[in-house]
Amino acid sequence: MTALRAFGLAAAIWGPLALGAVAQEKIEPEYSIWDVVLGEPVSQILEAQVSELACGTNGGPPAQSLTLFEDFATCPAEESGLHEVTFFYDDEQDYIAKAMESEYRFLQGGTSIFAHPVIVAVLVDPAGLVQGIRIVTDNRISDRERRTAVTLMRNFKARYSDWGMDCVDLPMRDGEQPVGTQFIHELCEGTSGDGALRIAIEASYLRKKGQRAINLETQTVNTGYFESQTRFEQVLAPYSPTVLP
Question: Do residues 180 and 196 make contact, with C-beta atoms less than 8 angstroms apart?
Fold first, then answer.
């Protein structure tokens, strides 16, 4: 069977999936959060490979802009003593994906993990060594897309399935409510086989205190009044991942 015929057969069977796989080989990000090597200087990340460096806000929107990764010390230190520096993937890849009319959101979505838009960051110690990485789903998207953010937990659990993670369902806190009939708040923690790496993954799908589904005055639906999020953090021991209270 010729290569051309084989490709045609794959396209017939898989349709857009086969074509998307070919496009993926051409337009994956030049540099992603998974390329960061823990324990190495933060200068390992070349500014030309990423964009929009800034101080992080524990998974929230970027704060003070930075020119170089070596400027990490201008960012406030967290309780652990580490400095969070966030960045975006090279947006040139995003433009290429759109030009090729790829239908896969993870090819078009800029900074994303497993098709979910995310905020990524490195955690740097005072000596300039990367001690961890942080990935948090980006809330600055449509409500429809945001509802699926909680499902990113499944991808992380599959990726680290051999770490023997300990997972617990957290109870409702004061004022929290389910979204419809669903309430999800799960926390998983694990350690690599050699004990050198620690991870924490937290996923939530709920209404926080004050987030009512219906406006009591107008009796209309409160659009966007829910939390759907996944947080991932991996650090080198003896550091411990940050778990939000």
Answer: no
